[in-house]
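I had to read the description of the data format several times before I understood it. In essence, backbone conformation is discretised, so a fold becomes a row of integers matching the chain in length. I therefore recommend that a typical entry be quoted early in the introduction. For illustration, here is how one protein appears when written out as sequence plus structure tokens.

***
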Amino acid sequence: MKRLILIAMTAAGLGAQMRPVETAYVDVDLPSEAAGGGTLAVRLLYEEGARPLLRGGAPVVIEVPGGFDVGTLQPALDAGFSGFVYVRFLFPGGRQPGRASGGVYDTRGPASVMALRDVALYASGRLRDRNGKTIGEALPFPVLTNNVGLLGLSFGGNASTIVLAKYGALLTGVRYFVGWENPTNGQIATGEPGPGGTVTCPGNGRPVSRDLTNPFFVAYGAAALRFDYSKVRWDGARLFFDGNANGRVDTVPVDGGCEGTDVNRDGRIAENEDFPVNGIMANGVRYFSPQLTEAGARVVTAWPANVANPGQAEAFWAEREAVRFYDGVRSDLEVMLLASVRDHVQTSPGHHHIRQAFEGFHRNGIWVKINPLRESLAELQPVLGTRTDIPETEPNTAANWLRPESFAYPENVPDSLAWAAGTREMARRAARME
């Protein structure tokens, strides 16, 4: 057992007072076929000396990190997760000083999902580590292996949804999923509705103002959004919506030393301005959404080797879009979707990704709710108990998607607080349902 010291928020106020939290952890190496004959680097974190959250032991939550990187074993445990076993791991091919997972990283593809499956099986007491120990045998207190949750942060929510659809019959110990602002399809993951792509920024930075939305958005769809793809062109580096039909991306200097496409500088992209999309990089290849790639193929005369073609884009996103997997998720799973008024990436009105996830789970008979109760937030930050601007939502009830203040928590409520409050609420629900 090892120890860390974390400075974390207390319940006295929103970050106004800090206290040290002594965090212990146990590192385990977990055999997995996803690790290419090796093991996965897994870390079990808990607050030393803390009372388990639930009667009988500590529930387990697995952090599925955002972004497209290999994951992390740091930082230490946030105080809001006191009483849990908090699990972090490195995806196959991931390395940090002193720790590594075997295999090759596939940018959250099938091997990554398989690794998450095995971590979840271990958390459920159904797999043993390299030394032959279960999770309960590795920790010095009772562990509730029948009360396991996935905390999918941003793009981590896609892998969480996919593992529950592909392997849910095996993962009976996983009782709930908490998803924070998950980009549910390739269009959303690449910022196609908004904020789109910057053209150039020093140090790969982003402009200070990111409230840009795609003026060529047409309509919401449960699996794919509709855009006017007749505007799509290629500038030799990326696909973009060519607002003035001149064949190039027109830019001006914007905040942060970047070049952007808000040519008239009114804070939005107009229909006579351009809207570039950056896509994402994986193994030296740039991927746009299947829909944008298909539109690009109609206008690009010589397809670049370092950009995924339509077949490659379809194959890539078929393994990474949550919208393709809701129908396979077990109906006895429960889901909480976390959303703030101002999303951490998305800028297009309508919270399309939250809506797609809500509708996908709901149509399959899965209990789904947006955001924790105010009392769950106030348990961690009592000052929030008197706030009237934190909406209370009903389970299985669609939101007014164009009025985020009616269902989303305000920006001065820390996201990490919502992660902890939502997870605590769902773990307690799972215990009551026993």
Notes: The CA atoms of residues 12 and 381 lie 6 Å apart. Confidence is low (pLDDT under 50) at residues 5-20.
